[in-house]
Amino acid sequence: MPYNRLAIYGHRGWSSSAIAQALLTSGAPAKLLYKPSSNSNGLTGSFSEIEVDIQDQDALRAALKDVDILISLVGREAIPLQHAFIKAIPHTDVRLFVPSDLAFRCDEQGLKISVNKDKDDVERAAREAGIATTVILPCVFAESGLNTGLLGVDVEKNRIVFAGDAKNQILNVCTRSYVSKAYSNLFAKTPIPTLQNRTIALSEIRTTGAEIATALEKKHGTTPQIFRQSLAEVDRQIEECVSSGRPALGWYCRRRWGAGECVEALGG
């Protein structure tokens, strides 16, 4: 089975650096694209690299020469910049665009949050332009979701906040290593028609809040502190954050978990 020719943009983030590294050592012919203020330092493997301002359409189209799959791994602030790819792709041989998402599908409430809306806008614009896409959804990363307070889990302080029925509801979790390997396995050799216009959910670990609490107790040798929040309170926090411009993503993630919607948000 022949390799696909890959172009990767976005490799400096916590997750994107590992995913880019996996793709660059997958065996597939690969180009690393990066903005003028960046470089390829820290990455290994046999790949070509191109410094490009993606707002320069002529330069971007030239950089995408001999590319089958364009994989974007940009972070939150750069999500809207992907519209430059959508403008350029119809003038290249790129057959598949993988926009940066790495989360889950959002409902109407979630689309009030800017980063979610920006992702949805990019994916919608690609479809409207007739560009084939593949969207990868791991729900949440274990390392960030369970160690930063995003979901109300504080491993070091041995405490957990259950929003709604999070104690009994499933949380879908993937490690950075698992997601990186999935990208490599999916995009290096899979025939492109098999990937086009698909949303692919990743699932490494499915756990409940009660199971996380048990793991915390085992780790610390004592019962974790457990706090509870109603979904009504979480909804109020989301609305206040959205209206004031404060980060709301953590609250929204807790809400989907507490409402038992994590699996549904992956499309299955």
From TrEMBL:
Domain NmrA-like: 50-223
One Pfam family named in its UniProt record: NmrA
Membrane-spanning ranges: none
A GO molecular-function descriptor: oxidoreductase activity
Keywords: NADP, Oxidoreductase
The UniProt record lists the keyword Oxidoreductase: yes
Keyword match Oxidoreductase: yes
Domain of life from the UniProt record: Eukaryota
This protein's name: NmrA-like domain-containing protein
Organism: Penicillium cataractarum
Lineage: Eukaryota, Fungi, Dikarya, Ascomycota, Pezizomycotina
